[in-house]
Design a protein that fits this description.
This is Bifunctional NAD(P)H-hydrate repair enzyme. By secondary structure, the chain is α/β, with parallel strands linked by helices. The protein is built from 19 helices and 18 strands. The radius of gyration is 26 Å and the shape is elongated. Bound molecules: ligand NAX and potassium ion (K).
Length: about 500
C-alpha cells in the first residue's frame, strides 16, 4: 500500500529535512531529476537533447527555483533554454543566478510568442505545493500558446494540489516530476499530471514520524492478497458463505447479477435469499437459493440492496440482515432505505461492520449533499457519520473508513457506468466480506477488480454488466499475474 500526503504534511517534512541539509541541496537534487526527465522527453519527442529548445515558465517561489536549476543543468547539456519570469522580482535568486551563469536566457515579454512557438519542451515551474487557485492571467497566456509537451515541476500549476480540482486555467502536463511523496492531485487528477515520476528526498513521512498519509493506494499485492489461492485444507465454508439479499419479483436481474458476481469472485458458497430465487437458481446452480432472508442459512456476510425495493418489505429485509451480527454491504435500494428510513439502522448491532457503496446521487440522498469538489473530505465525513466504510463511486472510487483512512482506487473507465454494474460490485464485495477481509480493504480490493473487469469486458467496445461479471475471474488472474511479476499495478 502506498501513502499519499497532502501539501501540509509534505511541507512539514520538507522543513524538517531543510533544517539539517545544506542550502539548496534538496532543490538541486529535485532539479536534477527534472532535468533528467526533460532530457528523456526531448529524446523521446525530438530524437535528441543538445541543440533543442526548452522554455521554463517560472513563478515566485521554490517551484520556480527547481525549474531554473533544471534549466541550468539542461544548458550544460547544450540545450537552448529560455525562462519566462512571471514575477521577476520574486524569482528564486540562487536558481536564477545559476541559470544565468549557465548561459540561460531570460525571455522578454515580447519574445514569449517566438519562444512558445519554437520550444520543444515547456517546464511548468509556476507553482507547486503552495499553489492556490487557477493559473493567473500572465501564466495562462503563456500556456495558451504552448503546443509542445509540458513537464510539470512537482504538480501541474492551476490544479488544486490537495483535491485535484480545477476551477479555471490550469496546466495540462504530459509528465510530472514530484518530490518526496505523491500528493492527492497525482491520484485524483492523473489526467492533468501525465506520467508521474517520484523523486525520493528522504522525507520523514509515515506513521513512524507521526505523519500518517492522508490517502493510500492499494498496490496490486494488496489486491491479490484479498484472493488467497485456496489450499487443500480449504473447503466451501472456510472461504466464507456470502449471503445476497437482493432483487424482487419485478427486478430479478439485480439478484442474478449480484449473486453471480459473488459466485465468480470467490470460491466460497453463496446463498441467495429473496423473491428471485428461481431466476437466480436457473442462472447459477451453485447458489443455494431460498425465498426469504428469514429462512436463509448462516452466512458470514450479507450484500443487500440491489433491486430490493424501498418499501416496507425491503426495509424488513435490510433490518434482518443488519441484525445478524455479520458484515453487511448496503448498496442501491438499501442506501435509499438508510436515507429514507434511518431507524432501520437501529437493527444494526454496534460491532456489525457496515459498508455503504453510494454513487454521487445516492450519496446526496444519504447525506443531504453531493460530494462536491473535495470528495475525500466528503467520503471521510460520511464514513464517520454512519460509522461505516463508505465506498464513493466515481472516476476514482474512494474508500473511506470511519477512522479517517481513505483509499483511492485506480481510475475506472466510464464503461462501468453501465446499468447493473453496481450489482456486480456488491456481489464481489459480499464475497470478500464473507471471506473475513477487513471491510475497508475488501471494499478497495473489490473496486479494483471491478474496474479491471470493466476494462477487460469493454476492451474498447460498449459492454454490459453481465459481461463485466463474466470478466471478474480474468481480472483476478490479471491481479495475481501483475503481483507475480512484481509490478505495482498502478
Ligand atoms: N523547500 C525546498 O527546498 C524544496 C521545495 N521544493 C519545491 O518548492 C515548491 C514549494 O515552493 P514554495 O513553497 O516556495 O511555493 P510555490 O513555488 O509552490 O509557490 C510560489 C508562490 O506562488 C504564489 N502562488 C500561489 N498560487 C499561485 C497561482 N495560482 N499562480 C501564481 N502564483 C501563485 C504564492 O505566493 C506562492 O508562495 C515545491 O512544490 C517544490 O517544487 C522541492 O524542490 C523540494 C525542496
Ligand atoms: K508546477
Amino acid at each position: 500500500m502506498r501513502g499519499v500526503w497532502t501539501t501540509a504534511g509534505v511541507r512539514e517534512a520538507e522543513d524538517e529535512v531543510l533544517a539539517r541539509t545544506p542550502d539548496g541541496a534538496l532543490m538541486q537534487r529535485a532539479a536534477h531529476a527534472v532535468a533528467r526527465r526533460a532530457a528523456a522527453m526531448l529524446t523521446e519527442h525530438t530524437g535528441g537533447v543538445s541543440g533543442r529548445r526548452v522554455l521554463l515558465v517560472v513563478g515566485a517561489g521554490n517551484n520556480g527555483g527547481d525549474a531554473l536549476w533544471a534549466g541550468a543543468f539542461l544548458r550544460n547539456r547544450g540545450v537552448g533554454v529560455g525562462a519566462v519570469l512571471l514575477a521577476p522580482e520574486k524569482a528564486h535568486a540562487a536558481g536564477l543566478a545559476a541559470f544565468r551563469r549557465s548561459g540561460g536566457r531570460v525571455v522578454s515579454e515580447s519574445d514569449v510568442p517566438q519562444w512558445t512557438e519554437r520550444a520543444e519542451l515547456v517546464v511548468d515551474g509556476v507553482v507547486g505545493i503552495s499553489a492556490r487557485g487557477p493559473l493567473r492571467p500572465a501564466a495562462a497566456d503563456v500556456f495558451d500558446r504552448v503546443t509542445a509537451p509540458v513537464l510539470a515541476v512537482d504538480l501541474p500549476s492551476g490544479v488544486d494540489p490537495d483535491t485535484g480540482a480545477v476551477d479555471g486555467p490550469a496546466v495540462h502536463a504530459t509528465a510530472t516530476v514530484t518530490f518526496g511523496a505523491r500528493k492527492p492531485v497525482h491520484l485524483l487528477n492523473p489526467g492533468r499530471c501525465g506520467d508521474v515520476t517520484l523523486v525520493d528526498l528522504g522525507l520523514p513521512l509515515g506513521a513512524e514520524h507521526g505523519r500518517s498519509p492522508e490517502l493510500r493506494q492499494l498496490d496490486v499485492a494488496d489486491v491479490a492478497a484479498a484472493w488467497p489461492v485456496p489450499g487443500p485444507e480449504d473447503d466451501k465454508y472456510t472461504q466464507g458463505v456470502a449471503g445476497i439479499a437482493a432483487g424482487s419479483a419485478t427486478y430479478p436481474g439485480a439478484a442474478v447479477l449480484a449473486a453471480g458476481a459473488a459466485v465468480r469472485a470467490t470460491s466460497g458458497m453463496v446463498r441467495y435469499a429473496g423473491p428471485a430465487a428461481d431466476e437466480v437458481r436457473s442462472w447459477w446452480p451453485e447458489v443455494v437459493a431460498t425465498g426469504s432472508v428469514a429462512d436463509a442459512g448462516r452466512v458470514q456476510a450479507w450484500a443487500a440492496g440491489p433491486g430490493l425495493g424501498t418499501g416496507r418489505d425491503g426495509c424488513d429485509v435490510l433490518a434482518h440482515v443488519l441484525g445478524q451480527g455479520v458484515p453487511v454491504c448496503a448498496d442501491a435500494d438499501a442506501i435509499t432505505l438508510v436515507a429514507t428510513r434511518p431507524e432501520v439502522l437501529d437493527a444494526r448491532d454496534p460491532d456489525t461492520p457496515l459498508v455503504l457503496t453510494p454513487h454521487d446521487g445516492e450519496f446526496a440522498r444519504l447525506t443531504g449533499d453531493r460530494p462536491g469538489a473535495d470528495r475525500v473530505a466528503a467520503a471521510r465525513a460520511a464514513a464517520r457519520r454512519f460509522d461505516a466504510v463508505v465506498l464513493l463511486k466515481g472516476h476514482h472510487t474512494l474508500v473511506a473508513a470511519p477512522d479517517g483512512r481513505v483509499l483511492v482506487n485506480r481510475p475506472r473507465g466510464a464503461w462501468l457506468a453501465t446499468a447493473g454494474s453496481g450489482d456486480v460490485l456488491s456481489g464481489i464485495l459480499g464475497g470478500l466480506l464473507a471471506a473475513g477481509l477487513d471491510p475497508w480493504l475488501a471494499a478497495g480490493a473489490a473496486a479494483d477488480v471491478h474496474a479491471r473487469a470493466g476494462e477487460i469486458a469493454a476492451a474498447g467496445v460498449p459492454t454490459s454488466a453481465s459481461q463485466v461479471l463474466m470478466a471478474v475471474p480474468e481480472a483476478i488472474r490479471q491481479v495475481r499475474a501483475l503481483c507475480d511479476d512484481g509490478s505495482s499495478g498502478a
